[in-house]
């Protein structure tokens, strides 16, 4: 059984139901359900929850209040969650990239063709996590690292996500890694509040399979279908031309509007 030990918060069954995006053509397809998935590695909505994300809350003040009440979140840093922009990334757009079901799929169930097997210690016991890489993920990350300041941002726990990223990021694309403690816990989900990064939001994008993750900043999002094991999936490959175009944008809001056909 896939347990919720990685997330350690959500123990109820949940279902993946990403919002179809308009940027990638294949993102318009209906996503597959995944009723086995139990909020293992990141934030997912409950099966009886709304089909679509609730409307964005008022500016992050409400979220910050919840964060304070929650008491398990990273302390706000005046300078933002990210370190200073390095010389090689000056002028580049910052892209926040999700891990689970965006770049990889992981499971406690043995996967015969797993790309990685990562030991994760939970409450004194070592568990094996089997990790599948999404098709074209290597090519995707390599090019993204050339075009953008790339940041890994996952709602999963660092003790799982960090070693997975060590194996996945063979080109050292990620300038920084943010884990669950950097999320805001809002209405039962871990939200990636882009306003806390310390970057110009007009120069910030998020690539994530879960719309709940970017509910505070939907206009910065490039949606991507959740991936589990489809060997024919070409979503990452298909997104590269989109990101090539976005990398030249002065303002991501304007460019994403254009790509969405508005
Ligand atoms: Mg995800």
TrEMBL record:
Record's catalysed reaction(s): O-phospho-L-threonyl-[protein] + H2O = L-threonyl-[protein] + phosphate; O-phospho-L-seryl-[protein] + H2O = L-seryl-[protein] + phosphate
Keyword rRNA processing (UniProt): no
Species the sequence originates in: Hippocampus comes (Tiger tail seahorse)
Catalytic residues, chain numbering: 98, 100
Name of the protein in question: protein-serine/threonine phosphatase
The encoding gene: CTDSP2
Lineage: Eukaryota, Metazoa, Chordata, Craniata, Vertebrata
UniProt entry keywords in alphabetical sequence: Hydrolase, Protein phosphatase
E.C. numbers: 3.1.3.16
Keyword flag Hydrolase: yes
């Amino acid at each position: 059984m896939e347990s919720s030990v990685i997330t350690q918060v959500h123990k109820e069954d949940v279902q993946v139901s990403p919002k179809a995006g308009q940027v990638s053509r294949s993102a318009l397809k209906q996503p597959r359900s995944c009723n086995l998935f139990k909020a293992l590695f990141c934030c997912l909505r409950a099966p009886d929850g709304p089909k679509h994300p609730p409307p964005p809350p008022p500016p992050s003040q409400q979220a910050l209040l919840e964060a304070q009440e929650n008491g398990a979140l990273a302390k706000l840093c005046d300078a933002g969650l990210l370190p200073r922009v390095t010389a090689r990334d000056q002028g580049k757009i910052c892209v926040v990239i999700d891990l689970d079901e965006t770049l990889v799929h992981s499971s406690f169930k043995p996967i015969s063709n797993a790309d990685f097997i990562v030991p994760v210690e939970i409450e004194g016991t070592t568990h094996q996590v089997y990790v599948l890489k999404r098709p074209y993920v290597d090519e995707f990350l390599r090019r993204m690292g050339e075009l953008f300041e790339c940041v890994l941002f996952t709602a999963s726990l660092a003790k799982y996500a960090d070693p997975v990223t060590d194996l996945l990021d063979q080109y050292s694309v990620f300038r920084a890694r943010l884990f669950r403690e950097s999320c805001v816990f809002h209405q039962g989900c871990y939200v990636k509040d882009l306003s806390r990064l310390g970057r110009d939001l007009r120069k910030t994008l998020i690539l994530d399979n879960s719309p709940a993750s970017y509910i505070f900043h939907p206009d910065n999002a490039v949606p991507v279908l959740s991936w589990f094991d489809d060997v024919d999936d070409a979503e990452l490959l298909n997104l590269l031309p989109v990101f090539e175009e976005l990398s030249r944008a002065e303002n991501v809001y304007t460019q994403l509007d254009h790509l969405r056909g508005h």
